[in-house]
Amino acid sequence: MFTNLEHLGLAVNNLEAATALYTTLLGMEPYKRETVASEGVDTVFFRVGGSKIELLGGTTPESAITKFVAKKGEGIHHVAFEVSDIRAEMQRLREAGFQLLNEQPKRGADNKLVCFVHPKSAHGVLVELCQEITSTDIEVD
């Protein structure tokens, strides 16, 4: 079950400049910075009410974020929703005909298991499912 709008992911060309801009815009410092080496991305998170803004900067030319910015420019990259059971939601979405970009949930930023729904399945929007990692999820890479 989808439980919350978790965050909006914004792809940026220069993470430090974007962080400074959003710090001023939102009137607050980010609460977390993190590298997700497996995805070739650096992230910066801001809390805004019950949701978050995630700034994403590619760290390699092969990174999906680097390619996204080169092709489409900076802007909204994805919409993320908190789910209570990511595996059950993945199964439900597959059965409903959605194309998932992951066979299994994987580790993402901010202590989350994540899975992405292909934009072709969601009217051009990349949708991310997020579930907080617990001790029972340690085996997930």
Give the uncertain stretches in residue-range form. none
Shape assignment: globular
Overall mean pLDDT: 94
Report the portion of residues in β strands.
Answer: 35-45%
Identify the CATH class: Alpha Beta
The name CATH uses for the topology is 2,3-Dihydroxybiphenyl 1,2-Dioxygenase, domain 1
Q: Compute the number of helices.
A: 3
Gyration radius (Cα, Å) is 15 Å
Structural summary, described in words:
It is a single chain. The protein has 141 residues and is an alpha+beta fold. It has a single domain, classed as 2,3-Dihydroxybiphenyl 1,2-Dioxygenase, domain 1, CATH 3.10.180. Helices cover 22% and strands 39% of the residues. It is built from three helices and eight strands. Strands 2-3-4-1-5-8-7-6 form an eight-stranded mixed β-sheet. The chain is globular. The two termini are 23 Å apart. The mean pLDDT is 94.
List its salient traits:
141 residues; alpha+beta; 2,3-Dihydroxybiphenyl 1,2-Dioxygenase, domain 1; eight-stranded mixed β-sheet; 3 helices; 8 strands
List the helices and strands and how they pair.
Elements: E1 2-12, H1 15-26, E2 32-36, E3 41-48, E4 51-58, H2 64-72, E5 75-83, H3 86-95, E6 106-107, E7 112-117, E8 127-132
Parallel strand pairs: 1-4, 5-8
Antiparallel strand pairs: 1-5, 2-3, 3-4, 6-7, 7-8
Domain VOC: 4-132
Protein name: Methylmalonyl-CoA epimerase
Organism: Hymenobacter oligotrophus
